[in-house]
Every structure is written in structure tokens, then in C-alpha cells.
């Protein structure tokens, strides 16, 4: 594994250049738009979660054991992405790429559990078009799952780029904003776990 980087890097290589600062700032603006988008999906779900004229209710189908494992895996992946950025600041490319790889593996595990969960729900009659509740559920949770899948692909490509180009003031901002993105989707999941699953199981 290459550990090449172009000379000694500054303490915060992700914002060492104007381009890097612009990437980080632009990404914060992007996350602001994402917050609005997810906020709309949450509002829609909350408005429709009791609309179950036919089909199972949230209390009947949700299994907190599976969702609990999913939550544990995703939150742990957030921690491994923190380790990756710490390694980046220490200019240790090998450790950076290792922790990003672990983050990707945790993300894949999360997606696997979510797919398993959705298949189980469909078998129990909880399909996308079963009710307004099911449609809003799959839209919100599925949209988050798509974000996780995108993050996995993105970080995987960055790992390959890191192997090829090393750690520089050009690649550092990319690693940094990817970690920000991963923290964001982890935070969104905490809200999903609370609003969708916990509120669904304890009643309305």
C-alpha cells in the first residue's frame, strides 16, 4: 500500500487550500439542502403514519431487535470514520484507508439488514402500496438507504484514489467531506430509529 504524499502536510489539510475550503463550505450548504429534504419526508411520514385502512400497523410489524443491530452497526461506522479522519490528520495514509474500508464494510452490513427487514415486511403484507403509512415508510427509510448506498460507493472510490494518489491537500478535502456525509446519514438514522421505529412500537 502506498503511503506517498506530496511533502509535509499542514495540520488541517482539508482546508489548507482555497479549493479545499470551498469544497468543505459547499458541502455544508449541500447538507443544509439535504436537511430540508429529509425534514419534508419526516413531516410526511408523521402525518401519514396512522393511515392504515388495510395491512399491518407499525406496532405489528416492526422488530426492534433487527433495527437495534442496524443502529449499532451504523453508529459504529460513524466512529470508524472519525478514526479515519484522525489518521488523516496524523498523515497516516494506511490507517486512513483501513478505517474507511471498515466503514464501508459496516455500511454494507447495515444495507444487508435493511434489505432483509424490507423482505420480511413484504411477506407480512407491508408493501409499498398497501397504505399511506407503508408508502411514507418505504419512501423515508428507502431514501435513507439510498444515501447509505451512495456513501458506500463514494468512500470506496476514495479508497481507490487514495491508493493511487496518496494523501495530499487535493485528496484530503475529499476524505473529509465524505466523512461529514457519513456522519450526516448516521444522524438521520438516529431520527428515523426514534420517530419511525420507537414511536411506532410504543404507540401513537
UniProtKB/TrEMBL annotation:
Subcellular location: Cell membrane
UniProt protein name: Cytochrome (Ubi)quinol oxidase subunit III
Membrane topology value: Multi-pass membrane protein
Keyword Transmembrane helix: yes
Family of the protein in this entry: Belongs to the cytochrome c oxidase subunit 3 family.
Domain Heme-copper oxidase subunit III family profile: 25-201
Domain of life: Bacteria
InterPro entries membership: Cyt_c/ubiquinol_Oxase_su3 (IPR024791), Cyt_c_oxidase-like_su3 (IPR000298), Cyt_c_oxidase_su3-like_sf (IPR035973), Cyt_c_oxidase_su3_a-hlx (IPR013833), Ubiquinol_oxase_su3_dom (IPR033946)
Keywords for the protein's UniProt record, in alphabetical order: Cell membrane, Membrane, Transmembrane, Transmembrane helix
One Pfam family here: COX3
Transmembrane stretches, start-end: 27-48, 68-89, 96-116, 136-163, 175-199
Keyword Transcription regulation tagged: no
Matches recorded under PROSITE patterns: COX3
Amino acid at each position: 500500500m502506498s503511503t506517498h504524499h506530496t511533502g509535509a502536510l499542514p495540520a488541517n489539510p482539508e482546508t489548507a487550500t482555497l479549493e479545499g475550503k470551498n469544497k468543505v463550505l459547499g458541502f455544508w450548504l449541500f447538507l443544509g439542502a439535504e436537511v430540508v429534504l429529509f425534514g419534508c419526508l419526516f413531516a410526511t411520514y408523521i402525518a401519514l403514519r396512522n393511515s392504515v385502512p388495510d395491512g399491518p400497523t407499525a406496532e405489528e410489524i416492526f422488530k426492534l431487535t433487527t433495527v437495534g443491530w442496524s443502529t449499532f452497526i451504523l453508529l459504529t461506522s460513524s466512529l470508524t470514520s472519525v478514526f479515519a479522519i484522525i489518521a488523516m490528520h496524523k498523515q497516516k495514509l494506511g490507517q486512513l484507508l483501513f478505517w474507511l474500508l471498515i466503514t464501508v464494510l459496516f455500511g454494507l452490513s447495515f444495507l444487508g439488514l435493511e434489505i432483509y427487514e424490507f423482505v420480511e415486511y413484504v411477506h407480512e403484507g407491508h408493501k409499498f402500496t398497501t397504505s399511506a403509512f407503508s408508502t411514507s415508510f418505504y419512501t423515508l427509510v428507502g431514501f435513507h438507504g439510498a444515501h447509505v448506498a451512495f456513501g458506500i460507493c463514494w468512500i470506496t472510490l476514495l479508497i481507490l484514489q487514495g491508493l493511487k494518489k496518496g494523501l495530499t491537500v487535493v485528496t484530503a478535502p475529499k476524505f473529509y467531506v465524505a466523512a461529514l456525509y457519513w456522519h450526516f446519514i448516521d444522524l438521520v438514522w438516529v431520527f428515523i430509529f426514534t420517530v419511525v421505529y420507537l414511536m411506532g412500537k410504543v404507540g401513537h
